[in-house]
Structures are given as structure tokens and as C-alpha cells.
């Protein structure tokens, strides 16, 4: 059974892991324009809020966390650097730092990595990664984390950045030059698990120049990764959706900006990012067995593993992300702050070769002999505008934030080795004007806003694959028109306490590629497929924060509903994911904390508890019956188990510090059943997952002008465990987690 919330909170208090890790992060300004914006604050305002705590995600203009009614997590540069000491996984820092974020998949894929039980919208400097048209669970690995200065997370459904933010918004913000003159940083890293083929190495360089009215940031890195082993010394199998192990990655990043105009109130900034991670193709996967009940059965369970080899004719799996971003800002545009951002992004993702049923075609090769590889291609471009005007209508404290977003998104999925269409080309156009008002009334800030989505989806006519009976599907268009509201209030009770409540609505598409490729009945038309309808989320949240001189503490409780939501299930024939459309309700509680005993000792912690329910069946399109009740529990594919994490940092010398951290996922059993009155059909679901606790250690020693030397140890106790989402039987998904990994990093700045 799920461990009770009260016991977990008691554990946190006993560990003295109290405070507000989320709301009390020290963070550098998110962009070069932040500083000038902050300077407009009065002395009274500066004493009331910490201007270092600035977030731009969701408002697209600098705003203190104490003025945003919601649970915000700001992952600082220090936290990112600590995580990089123990692992290069791009999402591991979120699993350690964000309460509602699920466990890291430890793979190129981010399957199962939800935020508060739903898929989050990932942004890189405000540009969307991945595509909601065909969510390929690869949008968490799109850049080298070494160039990320901070990560801002708005938890819960939000329409502020457009479609896709079902679980929230995660904005990775690149570093900015902060030191006058030139600054070059060289990073080298080596890690190993003690086996000859487990060695990995990295070299990266960053050049920053800040001079007068312009600044430049140039960065590049190369990583070569070996194979990985579990705690029992067994090679871990290559993840079917893409592995980090046995891969190389290359990253190039360029950002340049110039300030001009009177008092440099205008700025033009351009950035370019090119990232590619690709498998080396030196190993093939060897499937494991879960035990006597598996097919075929085995007496002793064994996880997937890898052996040297290559499937003839196959290509390497990869992620290839490229984006261009041009931004113009004007701090005095008709008395307000104007921000115009134009972007273009191209993304390609190829998966490992498979000979599953849904990839066979007797016209190409005898059944059960054909290997093929899925490949998703996505292209997007858009322009995002915002104008923020303080003291609008000459009312002190009343701020207007308005603009319009225009976006075009194209995506398709092919079977690369045989050049077959799997998901047809999809073209999505969105025009979304919005307006947001916030009013500071003494210690209280109230806010409300409205966003209008006026979107259109066009899908070409196509023919499904052999496995889906080669049926012709008539192309067509769907229009999505939705008005999305948000309301909130935050009360700063005094210098230490604040409370907030909020209501927000989110909007996303239901991974449209999955229902399109699964059509197997003739006479279908895209415009009449009910499963392509949008998903609307309604999120209710309330919480409080306390910040004192030595620490902080915060908690939030939320309820998220979607009357025609989506959840993942396993196809019993292909063992692949299928989309289930039915009502969904998710509820959760998060607790975060930090306490500084003295300048040498600090402890941080977090706890997350999430539950979710959906229906066993959706409403019948013919009108014979409605959707079922909320009697089916959401399992580990959607809702991660309870999570407790903490870290203790000790500055044992003026030039040295050590951090010991842990992450614990609890065991859980969920079950439910229902009977449909219309035909007497019975449904049931049961799922059991087992928890585990992992420890990690990071030690830094500052060599002054000779650089910094760092030691990182992931899975310090070399624990053997199965990833939570791999404990659920699915397609080739029986993977163990990584055993102990030791890393040595040397960084020098000159």
C-alpha cells in the first residue's frame, strides 16, 4: 500500500529537512535584460522580496517568486553542477530537485518521466523541444547540461506557453556572460564502473566575453560513453527507445547580444544550438525474462543485457536537435517592456531496430524476419511577443502583460530502413493572443488572465501499415478553439510567511501520432476521429512558504482534472504503448525544505505524494454508454510512486566541500475494478512496484588559479534495483538501474 502522507512528513521533520528548496533558491538573473528590469523596483520593494529570486517562465518578464501564486522550482547553477559530478543525464537534476518529477529513465528516452503525473512542456531558452503531435519521449535530451545556467519549473498545467504543458513548464536557460572581459572555462571528465568497456570521457570548453554594450558566449563539448553495468556487475541492455550508454554526443552553442539605444534600453540577441547524440552500434540487446510467468518462461528472473554485435543493415539511434533564436527587447516601449522572440527548430529522433509484429510486411520480407527502425521528424517555427506595462491606467501596482504567439509545427514518423510511412505528415498552426493582469495591493498580489487558442491541424491522406490492414484513411482538418483562464492570489503575511492559491487551465494534444498509426478499420476520416480531440486541464492549488535567516519550508496541495484526458496502457499484442482517452483526476502534495545550521553545514529535502484515477472505458461515440467512473488507478507509466530526497552539504575547508545525497522511491500497490452496466463487461487493474533508495556523493576541491578538481560517485552503495517503470511488464522493458559509477572532473577557468 502507499505509505501515508503523515508518515513521510514526519520523516522529513525528523531528518530536519525543512525549508523551501523550491522557493528559496539563489539564482542569477535569467537574461541580460533582467538586471535593468529589477532596477526599477523601489527600495521598499527591494526590502520585501529577494530580487535574486526571479523567474521569467510563464510571465516572460522578470517577476519575483513571491509574486507568483503557485509552486515554482528554480534549479540553481550549483545544483546542476553537483548533479553533473555524478551523472551526465540531462533529466537527473530534475529527478533530484523537483518534487513532482518522476525518476530518471537513465536513457536517451524519457519514457515515464512525468511532472505531477503528466507530460511537461520542455523549453530551451523559451523554444519548445519535441512535438505534441508525436510525443516520442526524447525531448529531455537536447543539449549539453554544461551550458545550462538554471532551470525554471512551473508546476501544474499551464497555457501560458501554448500547447503541451500538461504537467507544467520546464525552461532550461542557457548561461550568460557576467564578468567584464574574456573568460574561458575548460572541463574534462572521466567516469568508469571498473569494467574495461564502461569508461566514458568528456571534454568541453566555454568562452564568454562581456564588453561595453555587447556580450558573446561560445560553447562546445564532446562526450564518449561506454556501456553500463548494474549493481550485480551485469551489462544493462540497450533501451529500446534509445540509450545513453555506448553513445557519443556533440554540442555546439553560440549566443551573442548587443545593447543599444538611449541608456542601452534596447537589446538584440541571437543564439544557435546544435546537439546530436548517437549510438555507436557496438552492442545488441539480449532480452531478459521476468520469471515462470513470462513468455517464454524462465526459472530465475534475469534483466535485459547487451552483448557485442550489430544487426545487419541497421542504423544507429540518435537525437538530432537544432534551433535558431532571435530576440529583441525594449524596456521603454510605450512605457512598458516589449519582448519579441522568433525561433526555428528542427528535430530528428531515430530508435533502435525491432522486428515486432507491427513492423512486419510480407511484401518486403517473410513474417517475423523484418527489422525496422522508427524515426520521428519535427519542424517548428514561431514568434512569441509580449508587452508588460506597470501601473497601467495610472493605478499603482496594476500591471498588464499581453501579447500574441504564432506557431507552426510539422511532424511525421517513418520506418527508416524500408522508407514506409507510419504516421502521416501533420501540420499544426496556432494563433494565441493573451492578456494577464496582476495587482500588488500592499502585501497581496492578485492575478488573472485569459489566453485564446485558435488552432488548426491538417493531416494528409495515408494508408496504414500491413499490421493495421493497409486501410486508407481520408485526410482532413480539425479546428481547436479554446479560451483558457487563470486566477490566483498570494499574500505575503510578513517578511517570512506567504500563502497562495490558484486556478489554472492547460491545453494540449493527445500524442496524435499514436491513434493515427493504429487505425485498422476502413472508412475512417481524420476529421471524425474522436481521440484527436484536445485535452483541457483544470488545476486547483494552494500552499504556503516560510523563509527565515537560516532556512525555509514550503508545502503545496493540488488537484488536476481533465474530463476527456489521456493515459498510457500496454497493448497486449504488441506490448507497445496505446493511448486511452477517458476522464482523469490527479491529486498530490509536495513538501520542500532547506536548513543552514551554519556557514559550513546545510541540509535540503523534498517529498512528493501523487495519486491518480481514470476510467476503464471512455464514452461510446455511438452514444450507447458514457465513460466509466474514476475507478482505474493510474500506474507507474503516468504517476510515479512517493518520493523522498535529501542532501547534506559540508564545507569542511575554505576551498573544499562535500555533498551526500539520497533519493528514495517508495513501494506501492494500486488496484481497481469496475463493471459496465450496458453489457456487463468487467474490468480490473492491479500493479505492484517495489521501492529503492540510492545515495550519491560529490566532493569539490578548489585549486585556486589551477582550477577545480571534483569527485562524483553515483549509486554509492552499488545497489541492485529495477527502475520503477521497468517493473511493469511491457515491450522489452526489463531494465536494471545503473550500479556504482565513479567520476573525476577537472575544470579550469582563465
What does this structure look like?
The chain has a 22-stranded antiparallel beta barrel. A five-stranded mixed beta sheet has the order 3-6-7-4-5. The protein has six helices and 37 strands. The chain starts with a helix and ends with a strand. The model is unreliable at 1-52 (pLDDT under 50). The radius of gyration is 25 Å and the shape is globular. The chain is mainly β and 750 residues long.
Uncertain segments are 1-52
**Number of DSSP-assigned strands:** 37
Distance between the termini: 55 Å
How many H/I helical runs?
6
Structural class: mainly beta
Short description:
The protein is mostly beta strands and 750 residues long. 6% of the residues lie in helices and 50% in strands.
Which key features would you list for this structure?
five-stranded mixed beta sheet; 6% helix; 50% strand; disordered N terminus; 6 helices; 22-stranded antiparallel beta barrel; mainly beta; 750 residues
Amino acid at each position: 500500500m502507499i505509505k501515508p502522507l503523515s508518515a513521510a512528513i514526519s520523516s522529513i521533520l525528523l531528518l530536519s529537512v525543512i525549508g523551501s528548496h523550491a522557493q528559496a533558491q539563489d539564482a542569477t538573473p535569467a537574461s541580460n535584460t533582467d538586471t535593468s528590469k529589477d532596477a526599477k523596483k523601489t527600495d521598499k520593494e527591494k526590502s520585501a522580496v529577494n530580487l535574486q529570486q526571479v523567474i521569467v517562465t510563464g510571465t516572460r518578464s522578470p517577476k519575483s517568486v513571491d509574486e507568483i501564486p503557485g509552486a515554482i522550482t528554480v534549479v540553481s547553477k550549483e545544483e546542476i553542477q553537483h548533479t553533473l559530478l555524478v551523472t551526465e543525464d540531462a533529466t537527473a537534476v530534475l529527478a533530484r530537485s523537483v518534487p513532482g518529477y518522476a525518476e530518471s529513465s537513465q536513457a536517451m528516452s524519457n519514457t515515464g518521466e512525468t511532472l505531477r503525473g503528466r507530460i511537461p512542456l520542455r523549453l530551451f531558452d523559451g523554444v519548445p523541444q519535441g512535438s505534441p503531435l508525436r510525443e516520442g519521449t526524447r525531448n529531455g535530451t537536447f543539449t549539453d547540461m554544461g551550458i545550462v545556467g538554471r532551470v525554471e519549473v512551473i508546476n501544474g498545467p499551464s497555457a501560458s506557453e501554448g500547447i503541451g504543458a500538461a504537467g507544467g513548464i520546464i525552461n532550461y536557460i542557457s548561461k550568460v556572460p557576467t564578468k567584464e572581459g574574456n573568460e574561458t572555462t575548460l572541463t574534462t571528465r572521466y567516469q568508469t564502473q571498473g569494467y574495461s568497456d564502461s569508461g566514458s570521457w568528456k571534454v568541453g570548453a566555454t568562452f564568454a566575453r562581456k564588453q561595453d554594450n555587447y556580450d558573446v558566449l561560445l560553447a562546445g563539448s564532446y562526450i564518449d560513453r561506454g556501456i553500463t553495468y548494474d549493481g550485480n556487475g551485469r551489462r544493462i541492455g540497450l533501451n529500446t527507445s534509445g540509450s545513453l550508454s555506448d553513445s557519443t554526443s556533440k554540442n555546439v552553442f553560440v549566443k551573442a547580444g548587443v545593447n543599444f539605444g538611449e541608456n542601452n534600453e534596447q537589446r538584440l540577441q541571437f543564439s544557435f544550438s546544435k546537439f546530436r547524440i548517437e549510438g555507436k552500434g557496438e552492442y545488441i540487446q539480449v532480452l531478459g525474462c521476468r520469471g515462470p510467468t513470462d513468455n517464454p518462461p524462465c526459472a530465475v528472473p534475469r534483466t535485459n543485457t547487451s552483448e557485442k554485435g550489430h544487426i545487419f543493415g541497421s542504423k544507429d539511434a540518435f537525437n538530432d536537435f537544432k534551433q535558431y533564436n532571435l530576440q529583441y527587447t525594449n524596456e521603454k516601449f510605450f512605457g512598458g517592456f516589449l519582448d519579441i522572440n522568433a525561433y526555428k527548430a528542427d528535430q530528428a529522433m531515430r530508435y533502435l531496430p525491432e522486428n515486432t509484429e507491427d513492423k512486419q510486411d510480407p511484401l518486403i520480407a517473410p513474417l517475423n524476419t523484418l527489422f525496422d527502425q522508427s524515426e520521428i521528424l519535427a519542424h517548428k517555427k514561431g514568434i512569441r511577443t509580449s508587452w508588460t506595462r506597470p501601473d497601467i491606467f495610472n493605478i499603482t501596482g496594476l500591471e498588464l502583460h499581453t501579447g500574441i504567439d504564432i506557431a507552426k509545427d510539422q511532424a511525421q514518423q517513418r520506418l527508416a530502413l524500408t522508407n514506409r510511412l507510419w504516421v502521416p505528415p501533420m501540420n499544426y498552426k496556432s494563433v494565441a493572443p493573451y492578456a494577464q493582469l496582476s495587482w500588488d495591493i500592499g502585501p497581496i498580489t492578485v492575478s488573472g488572465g485569459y489566453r485564446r487558442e485558435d488552432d488548426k491541424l491538417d493531416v494528409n491522406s495515408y494508408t496504414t501499415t500491413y499490421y493495421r490492414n493497409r486501410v486508407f484513411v481520408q485526410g482532413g482538418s480539425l479546428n481547436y478553439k479554446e479560451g483558457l483562464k487563470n486566477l490566483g492570489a498570494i499574500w505575503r503575511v510578513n517578511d517570512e510567511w506567504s500563502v497562495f492559491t490558484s486556478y489554472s487551465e492547460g491545453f494540449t494534444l493527445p500524442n496524435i501520432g499514436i491513434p493515427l498509426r493504429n487505425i485498422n478499420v476502413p472508412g475512417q476520416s481524420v476529421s471524425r476521429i474522436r481521440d484527436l480531440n484536445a485535452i483541457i486541464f483544470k488545476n486547483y492549488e494552494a500552499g504556503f512558504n516560510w523563509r527565515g535567516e537560516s532556512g525555509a519550508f514550503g508545502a503545496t496541495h493540488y488537484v488536476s482534472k481533465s474530463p476527456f484526458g489521456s493515459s498510457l496502457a500496454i497493448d497486449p499484442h504488441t506490448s507497445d504503448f496505446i493511448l486511452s482517452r477517458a476522464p482523469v483526476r490527479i491529486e498530490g502534495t509536495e513538501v520542500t525544505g532547506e536548513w543552514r545550521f551554519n556557514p559550513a553545514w546545510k541540509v535540503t529535502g523534498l517529498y512528493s505524494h501523487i495519486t491518480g484515477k481514470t476510467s476503464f472505458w471512455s464514452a461510446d461515440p455511438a452514444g450507447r454508454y458514457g465513460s466509466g467512473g474514476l475507478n482505474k488507478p493510474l500506474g507507474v507509466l503516468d504517476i510515479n510512486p512517493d518520493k523522498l530526497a535529501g542532501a547534506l552539504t559540508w564545507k569542511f575547508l575554505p576551498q573544499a566541500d562535500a555533498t551526500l545525497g539520497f533519493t528514495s522511491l517508495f513501494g506501492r500497490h494500486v488496484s481497481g475494478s469496475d463493471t459496465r452496466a450496458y453489457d456487463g463487461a468487467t474490468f480490473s487493474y492491479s500493479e505492484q512496484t517495489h521501492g529503492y533508495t540510492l545515495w550519491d556523493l560529490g566532493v569539490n576541491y578548489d585549486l585556486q588559479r589551477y582550477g577545480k578538481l571534483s569527485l562524483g560517485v553515483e549509486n554509492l552503495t552499488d545497489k541492485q534495483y529495477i527502475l520503477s517503470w521497468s517493473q511493469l511488464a511491457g515491450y522489452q522493458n526489463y531494465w536494471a538501474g545503473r550500479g556504482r559509477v565513479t567520476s573525476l572532473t577537472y575544470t579550469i577557468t582563465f
